[in-house]
Amino acid sequence: MAVACLAATLVVAASFVRPAAAYGLGTELLASWCSPNTGSNEKTGALPDAWQISRLKPSQVWSQNDAKGRPITGTGITIAVIDTAAQIGISPFLRASSTGTGAKPTWKLANYVPDDPTIKQNVARDGYGLDCAHGTRVVSLINAQVLDQDDSNFSGMAPGSSVIVMRALTSSSAAVMDDQGPLAAAINDAVASHVDIINISQEGSDDTRIRQAVANAVSHGVIVVASSGNAGNSGPKYPAAYPGVISVGMTTTSDAPHPSSEEGVGVDVTVAAPGDAIVSLLPSGPQGATSTETYLKSSQIWNTEPGTSFAAPIVTGVVALMLQKAKAEDVTLTPAEVMRRLELTADPPPGAVPDAQLGYGTVNPQKAVFGPFPDASPVTVTPTVTPTAGPLQIPAGRDTMPMVMAVAVTLGALALLAGALLVREAIAPMRRRKYAPARADES
Q1: Tally of CB atoms within 10 A around 434
Q2: 438 within a domain of the structure (yes/no)
Q3: Which of 299, 336, 357, 389 is most solvent-facing, going by the fewest CB within 10 Å?
Q4: What is the distance between the terminal CA atoms of the chain, rounded to a whole angstrom?
Q5: Tell me: the pLDDT tens digits for 313-346?
């Protein structure tokens, strides 16, 4: 028995250092290591209708084709979800399907957290040991599939998109990152892997490594979406508060700002999305060859809890729809242009915009994808210029030749006149002397 346990532990340890092949430098993880969730308010079995889907109606976008004739479901768009690990490939919602949306997504799972001996021991003993609750919820809101066997309307906003889960958090209950190094590494690897969007449903303090990594992503045209925070009026949270990041607040079922959605000095929310008690998936127990119908009725675990962490992936899904349509038309949308389109097309809040908690309002998938965009150019601040007298203006030079000629003629005439007078004065004495040379005593 001891030999068997040791062998299992060695296998697990080897698995934790297996290099990832095609997606950055993180080591590969297995989704089967995810612990079945034991979180709060969890429920097992059939899902109810998700109010976020009823409110945003993404199927109105999916029913339209892009310029290449594909349903606009996020096809061809790759999203990095930097979070806890996520349970992928087990729930029918997070496996490739062949439904009417034409979705053919992929999922990958990589690790950016240093090895955890406790997890290895748990995996060796029980077959699982990873906390995957938070990441699974986030991923499900992005690209959970539309299932014909499911009686609810639940799905992700962009079921055709593909996801790379980058594990930078160890615990779903960690509201603030203790070490931001894994997040910075994951962001940089996501950029190097040429993802289209990065979703960061976590928060931390201002950190030079994260600031530089986010700036690197934005400069490479990667759209960065982040949750604004859940502490109400407690000031900016990072990376949501960094320049170029789409910061997402959350609404209630009445489109009102949720009381805990972040606000305050330095909080610059772009748009909001449903975040109060939205339906999302949790890690569930693997059931082998159980049919989809049976799994959905007896094994699927889900819950409803609030958080801007769960509003952000909804906006991420909308951005995936935007990018698919644009790319099919050979249009490259910059991060600033995507942000501006989201602002211009959001359903505005009752008061002035931007609202402290909701920004420009609740994201509107149809308008964000199809427009119209009255002025989608990024907003720029034009510095006020104080008028000055400036340098003295010198008139253009005039032609002075006529004046020179006139002066020359005048001087010439005066010279001739003077000469004539001298000659006249000299001629009279010369006549008296009969033109003989003058003597010294003659005046």
Answers
A1: 6
A2: no
A3: 389
A4: 153
A5: 999 999 999 999 999 999 999 999 999 999 999 9
